[in-house]
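Sharing a chain and its predicted structure for anyone who wants a worked example. Both blocks are below, sequence first, tokens second.
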Amino acid sequence: MLVYLRVFKESFNFAINALRNNKLRTFLSLLGVTIGIFSIIAVLAAVDSLDRNIKENLSGLDMNTMYISKYSFGPTDVPRWQRDNFPQTSYQEYEFIQRNVADVEEVAYVIFGARETVKSEGVTLTNIEVVPVTSEIYDIEEFKVEQGRFYTQAESYSGAAVVVLGYGVAEKLFENANAIGKQVRIYGRRLTVIGVLKKFGAQLFDSPDEKVYVPANFVRRFMNSGPQGVPGAIILKPKKDVDIAAFEEVLVQKLRNYRGMKYEDPTNFFVNKMSGLRDAVDNIIGMMNMVGWVIGGFSILVGGFGIANIMFVSVKERTSLIGIQKSLGAKNKFILFQFLFEAVILAFIGGLIGLFLVWVVSIIASSMTGDFKFVLSLGNMVLGSAVAVTIGLISGIVPAWSASRLDPVEAIRTGM
């Protein structure tokens, strides 16, 4: 063990001397490893940070929540032309599910929001997402109200001209003033503000802070929400401890029967689950990680050739010294480990520089993006170090082996 520690110490000294005496050559050789580790770990850290932020945003959602719509939230085998002919989910189907499907905790009907202009007291906001939805969304999304209240089931059913503002929208329209009872104009119609939601902050998807909620039946007065009308969905939250697979099977069959579909007819709607969205996110994250490895792999390959090159040069420069060491009794494995350790140390130094650069970039990125936290995890640091060491081993094995096989007499003569 002491012999190997001495070999490691000498190899470390040789590596440091190589850095000092041949700064430009060593810098160019390590540049590939540094860039490679930086590329791989930067992408992996970015993907991990994105994955963490996505899962934080999804953590507050019930993974069993279902969205019944003509649209699929993920990849599907149904051809595009067939999906285009699917009917829109209707308000009548929402009422049917309310009456006829058991084990439902809450069910809501939503018309996919369009971007509209919102005006009030001389202030005009453009490109604001207006979400026409029934009152049950309050419990499904677990909204919390800052001022006033959310609209009731009676107001939802009657299509009352009321509106609930997201925190950000209310702040832009009324600043610090109380928004309750104020009039806003949306769709060219006047609505009364009855509530302002609590601040949610940045979200993976559109934050409720920048949305406006109105009763779906208010919009249905002047928009067609039938099978060929505006796009919409039924949001359904099953009761806890329900067998989701059996529940979904019953739900699909009842909705097929309501639509008058025969046994051989293909289902013309999708039941999208939040758990399926998480699976889709995991697949995307996996693909992004793979792309990161491919991008960084080329730089690592170049860096490996650079380390191998500097080690061959080092063997050439120290041929006489190798001959003297062997003539004094140094074994082949001593010479092998000496150069192998040197290659690993050089690659490790390049890897540390790459990790340092990723750390600097993560700090800058986090400060610029605000709510998005770019994190360089301990796992990624260990992975980067392990990749650097592996590259050093692979790149140094051939030069180290060639040095260990030198004949001592020939080595001393060549050095002279």
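Comments welcome. The first strand starts at residue 66 and ends at 69.
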